[in-house]
């Protein structure tokens, strides 16, 4: 079944004004039978968004309008496509209790969800990993090196996998190689795949799915999916379910690079191999 499990909405402050209707109709035209709207969940109370525009996530006052709008579009297109109401939930080190509370409050309303790491804690300060190449360079200076930044990211992903966030903790782990977004400017360390393999073992042991996020293919400094090809193949070898996600922030990106995903899961050669 053709499924896009990672889609954003006009409620995303750093997204586009494309309507929910335009997203749904684009998916239908492309032959998708199911999609998940996974808007960035509101950031925990007390957490200060480190990006300049403070636009990383759904504002709390837009939470109820978001829920109502997704329910409306689900109903409107119920005969043509299954639409899931969901969130992309940030794992933020030090805010586990607040995140658990959000999940407990809204878990029953969710059809689907993803647990992702965008924010890194280093020496008491938080940084957004994927905001910009300048921001990534700032993290590298704070962490001490490119290698230590990658390590900090993977250690935080490990904590997200092992964290106890309660009954409603998402069952899909988001873009586990997001540290590669600027890899052509800040190359990954040589032991990267070995580190990812250990994360995949934890994902497998926890019974989680893996977000196969094609957004990286559309980023000029990355040009590979998250996880990248050899890491994705390793996940398949380990028997971890991969769920295609376009990570669309505009309607025209629904299903983007789905053919690449199909090649991967059927064992066909990929462009980087």
TrEMBL record:
One of its GO terms (molecular function) is histidinol-phosphatase activity. It holds the Pfam family PHP_C. It catalyses: L-histidinol phosphate + H2O = L-histidinol + phosphate. Keywords: Amino-acid biosynthesis, Histidine biosynthesis, Hydrolase. Gene3D superfamilies: Metal-dependent hydrolases. Residues 4-215 form the PHP domain. Pathway: Amino-acid biosynthesis; L-histidine biosynthesis; L-histidine from 5-phospho-alpha-D-ribose 1-diphosphate: step 8/9. It is an enzyme of class 3 (hydrolase). Its EC number is 3.1.3.15. Belongs to the PHP hydrolase family. HisK subfamily. This is Histidinol-phosphatase. It comes from Metabacillus flavus. The gene is hisJ.
């Amino acid at each position: 079944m053709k499924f896009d499990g990672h889609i954003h909405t006009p409620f995303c402050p750093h997204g586009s004004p494309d309507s929910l209707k335009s997203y749904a109709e684009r998916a239908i035209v492309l032959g998708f039978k199911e999609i998940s709207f996974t808007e960035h969940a509101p950031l925990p109370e007390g957490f200060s968004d480190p990006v300049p525009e403070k636009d990383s996530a759904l504002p709390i006052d837009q939470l109820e309008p978001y829920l109502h709008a997704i329910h409306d579009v689900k109903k409107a297109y119920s005969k043509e496509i299954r639409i899931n109401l969901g969130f992309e939930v940030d794992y933020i080190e030090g805010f586990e209790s607040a995140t658990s509370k959000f999940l407990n409050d809204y878990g029953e309303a969710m059809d689907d969800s993803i647990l992702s790491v965008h924010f890194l804690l280093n020496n008491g300060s938080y940084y957004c990993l994927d905001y910009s190449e300048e921001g990534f360079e700032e993290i590298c200076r704070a962490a001490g090196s490119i290698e230590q930044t990658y390590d900090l990211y993977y250690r935080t992903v490990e904590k997200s996998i092992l964290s106890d966030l309660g009954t409603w903790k998402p069952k899909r782990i988001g873009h586990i190689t997001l540290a590669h977004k600027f890899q052509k400017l800040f190359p990954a360390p040589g032991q990267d795949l070995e580190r990812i393999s250990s994360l995949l073992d934890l994902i497998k042991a926890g019974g989680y799915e893996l977000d196969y996020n094609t957004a990286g293919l559309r980023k000029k400094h990355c040009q590979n999916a998250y996880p990248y090809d050899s890491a994705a193949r390793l996940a398949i070898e380990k028997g971890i379910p991969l769920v295609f996600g376009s990570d669309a922030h505009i309607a025209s990106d629904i299903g983007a690079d789905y053919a690449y995903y199909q090649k991967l899961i059927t064992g066909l050669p990929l462009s980087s191999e």
